[in-house]
Design brief:
With 451 residues, this protein is an all-alpha fold. It has one domain (20-449). It has 16 helices and no strands. Helix 11 (315-352) crosses helix 13 (376-388) and helix 13 runs antiparallel to helix 14 (392-418).
Length: 451
């Protein structure tokens, strides 16, 4: 079964047998990495809300889904490409794997340049079409145009967060993320709290941190290194690139759908609760990003392991990975729900404690919204599991239903019955339905993939 696994070996290899302990050790850097990325993304919101004002804070929350769509392409290349690379490594073809790695990185960087230019041109009409007017429109566009300058690095940052695990260097990926996060936090404090550069200062801090997160891995992989992967010559293999993109389409779909749904939530909240509703939803999304990052980080960390053993045809190991992962996700789910219930009011105070009415609305939203953490992790892992098996179609189906179809239907229908509470409840309902679909796919395809 490849290289022999040794429990005392500090370097965990993709070919090892993975116990509960080894799974947690290998995925922990990816989990912390994604959580840390989410936390430093929240820093903008904290500084803008407390040092600039409620309307600029609403503007950041309003335009962020649009910016996240562009970053989602990094997850597409990282997850889809990482699964293909891991499978190729499992088949014993390291040179081919490195060629695929190089091709995916080069293409994604070029894609980032194109998307950045298109974003700069279209951000004003896009924000206006989404319903922003007056100062909200001005602030949304001002923030976005600065962040858009860093889109190529933003895409590479998300991509390398996935590929560090594939290269057997998850801890190094964590260090890079910490460096980028500290850059954002320090510059936010300097630009917004000290120099009083306002919304533009927060945007500049974010853009500079993304350059750190994207450029440092690029330099590392371009030089001789101790990982499984290195940037080098790449042949234009259109078929492999298509497979990587279609396989990662579920993650792209998931992120784009979440952004589109966030825009719909903002529109519904403007209708039912005004700008306070958008601000409250922004707080929920900040916390959700951090909590969901635990599930996403675990999925990202396990994907290359699953892909490697699938490529090597180690079916018993695949079954073990599926069973253990479901148990670990269940523990995470219970912990996330308990934490959300316990921290709902303190976290709301942190962001909107200056406005009693907004605080009350946010705490109420937390009490309903937190139930989604009991379910979301299973669908997130299920989608990633099929991506790792190079079944992009099933993975995309789970993501599409979870993040778009179920949420759109619920957020349009539930408020008609329960008002604003129905908007918060719709997220929970969508996650419950997504778990049912995930379970059906896992059961129905168990014989095909022999897991």
């Amino acid at each position: 079964m490849g290289r022999p696994a040794r429990e005392d070996d500090m370097k965990i290899q993709l070919s090892d047998h993975f116990t509960y302990g080894k799974l947690l050790r290998y995925t922990l850097p990816s989990i912390v990495m994604l959580v840390f990325t989410s936390i430093y993304g929240v820093v903008d919101g904290f500084f803008v809300s407390n040092f600039v004002g409620k309307v600029p804070f609403t503007a950041v929350n309003f335009i962020m889904p649009v910016l996240m769509i562009l970053g989602a392409f990094g997850f597409m290349f990282g997850t889809g490409g990482g699964a293909l690379i891991a499978k190729t490594l499992g088949e014993g073809k390291p040179e081919k794997a490195n060629g695929l790695f190089s091709l995916i990185v080069y293409v994604s960087a070029a894609c980032g340049v194109v998307l950045g230019v298109l974003g700069m041109v279209s951000i004003w009409p896009a924000a206006s079409a989404l319903g922003a007017q007056g100062q909200l429109l001005e602030d949304s566009v001002a923030y976005a145009r600065i962040v858009l300058m860093a889109v190529p690095a933003y895409i590479l940052q998300f991509e390398f967060q996935c590929l560090f695990s594939t290269s057997e260097k998850p801890v190094l990926g964590l260090y890079v993320t910490i460096a980028a996060g500290c850059t954002n936090m320090v510059l936010d404090a300097l630009f917004v709290a000290v120099l009083r550069w306002g919304l533009e200062g927060a945007a500049a801090a974010t853009a500079l941190s993304q350059f750190v997160g994207g450029a440092v891995p690029l330099i590392y992989f371009a030089r001789p290194n101790g990982s499984l992967l290195r940037l080098g010559r790449a042949d234009l293999d259109g078929r492999a690139l298509w497979r990587a993109c279609t396989n990662g389409a579920s993650e792209l779909m998931s992120n784009i759908s979440m952004s589109v749904v966030s825009m719909l939530y903002n529109a519904q909240l403007l209708r039912y609760a005004g700008e306070d509703g958008v601000a409250a939803y922004g707080v929920l999304m900040y916390v959700s990003l951090v909590f969901q990052a635990v599930f996403i980080g675990y999925a990202v960390g396990t994907a290359p392991v699953i892909g490697y053993h699938y490529g090597a045809q180690h079916h018993e190991e695949l079954r073990g990975l599926r069973r253990r992962s479901m148990a670990i996700v269940a523990v995470f789910a219970a912990a996330m729900f308990a934490a959300a219930q316990w921290l709902g009011r303190p976290l709301s105070l942190l962001f909107v404690g200056y406005d009693e009415g907004l605080l009350s609305m946010t705490v109420r939203a937390f009490s309903i919204f937190s139930f989604c953490f009991l379910f979301s992790g299973f669908a997130i892992f299920g989608s990633s599991f099929f991506t790792a098996l190079n079944d992009g179609l099933v993975s995309a189906a789970i993501s599409f239903l979870r993040t778009l179809v179920f949420q759109v239907a619920a957020v349009l229908l539930f408020p008609l019955v329960w008002g604003v509470d129905g908007i918060w409840l719709s997220i929970v309902a969508a996650e419950v339905l997504a778990v049912a679909v995930t379970a059906a796919f896992l059961w129905g395809l168990r014989k095909r993939y022999r897991y």
